[in-house]
Each structure stands twice: as structure tokens, then as C-alpha cells.
Design brief:
By secondary structure, the chain is of the alpha+beta class. It is built from three helices and eight strands, in the order H-H-H-E-E-E-E-E-E-E-E. The two termini are 41 Å apart.
Length: 218
């Protein structure tokens, strides 16, 4: 029996308006001068007592507005593409079996959506399954997805969760794929598979392509 048996019978940072800042400086300096004239230089004493060096020209020190990284982070989040696993491919099988997978999965792990499907045709068996994605996690160029089977001709498989792992190797290189039933040869055996659980991507793509967009593109 093959390894893939289906057991068939934003905002911009704040900028200071130079005119307004100049006026503020003049007003502050004037007020400071008036106070110094009235109290005999008490302003300098108070400044020194506050732990601040008085400017040599008698003008007041006005701090510039701080940068606003939160707005910058919001723009970056808005520009970052949504995590996804998409594409379709046929696996490389020396025995001549025709094994294919497709994915159209999008979103974060706890809010994933989309569809998946696979089929296996050999000299002795054939079967297919399709379903809805319920979890998607990705890092770098590797994604793990799970979904619930909604349509199949394999007895006992409908309603179960199955898992997949895809390594997107990039242009010109064959991608790799794994699945949750790699150790059992039977996707109906695992009754309580947790979300986003699968095997290492041990299979090699012969034809087709998968694309992974990571949750963290670094």
C-alpha cells in the first residue's frame, strides 16, 4: 500500500510648524526676561535648582516633540500582506501513482479560512477529499494548515480534521509537502487531531507550485 493510502475498497509623524515654534520661543523668552527683571535673576536660580543648565543667551529651552513609532507600526501592519497558503501540485511518485493537493488558505491561526483538497489514483485504489480550512500557521516559507473534510468518497473520513505541511522552496525549486497521516497511511485513523498539526514535508512536488506568505515575513 502506498504512503498515501486512502484505505479504499495610518498616520504621518507630527511636524513642528517653524513659525509657531518661533513665536513660542519669543513669547517664552520675553516672559523669562520680564521675570528676571522683576526678581533679580531668580529665573536662573530656579532653573539651576531644577537641574537644568540655563542657556547662555538667556532664552528658554523648548523640547522638540518625540517621534511617534505607533503610527509607523500601524502603517507597516496595513502594508503587510495577509498570511496564506495557495497553489496546486502533483507529487513525485516512482510507483506512478497520481497524488495531487490544492490549497486556498488565508488568515491567522485562530481566524483561518479557505479550502483544500487532495486525490490519489493508483492501479489498485482511488479516492479524493475536499474540505474547509480551520487553522493556518506559517513562518518563513513553511506553512502548516488543517481543515475539516466536508466531501469525500473515502469511508469514515468525512467530518475529520486532517493536516498538511508545505515548504515553499521558491522559483525553480520543487516544493515539499507532508500530511498528518504520514505515520499511519490512513487519514481516518486520527480522530482527534489538534488544529495546525501535521508531519514534516517529506514528499517532493513533481509538477505545480505552492506559495506561502508568512505571518512574520522576516
Amino acid at each position: 500500500m502506498s504512503r498515501f493510502s486512502l484505505r479504499m475498497p495610518a498616520t504621518t509623524p507630527t511636524r513642528v510648524r517653524m513659525g509657531a515654534l518661533g513665536a513660542a520661543l519669543l513669547l517664552t523668552a520675553g516672559a523669562a526676561g520680564a521675570a528676571a527683571a522683576s526678581d533679580g535673576g531668580g529665573t536662573d536660580d530656579r532653573t539651576r535648582r531644577a537641574g537644568q543648565a540655563a542657556p547662555a543667551d538667556g532664552s528658554a529651552s523648548v523640547p522638540l516633540p518625540a517621534a511617534q513609532p505607533a503610527a509607523h507600526g500601524a502603517r507597516q501592519a496595513a502594508e503587510q500582506p495577509e498570511p496564506s497558503l495557495t497553489g496546486a501540485a502533483k507529487l513525485s511518485r516512482p510507483d506512478g501513482d497520481d497524488v495531487r493537493f490544492f490549497f486556498d488558505a488565508h488568515g491567522e491561526p485562530d481566524a483561518a479560512r479557505g479550502t483544500f483538497g487532495f486525490r490519489h489514483v493508483s492501479a489498485n485504489e482511488r479516492g479524493f477529499a475536499e474540505g474547509r480550512i480551520d487553522c493556518l500557521a506559517s513562518g518563513g516559507k513553511v506553512a502548516v494548515a488543517t481543515g475539516i473534510v466536508t466531501r469525500t468518497d473515502v469511508p469514515g473520513l468525512k467530518g475529520l480534521r486532517v493536516g498538511f505541511t508545505v515548504h515553499d522552496k521558491g522559483p525553480g525549486k520543487p516544493d515539499r509537502l507532508g500530511y498528518s497521516w504520514a505515520g499511519t497511511n490512513d487519514p481516518t485513523v486520527t480522530k482527534d487531531l489538534p488544529p495546525c498539526v501535521s508531519s514534516a514535508p517529506f514528499e517532493t512536488v513533481e509538477r505545480g507550485d505552492f506559495t506561502v506568505i508568512s505571518m512574520d515575513p522576516r
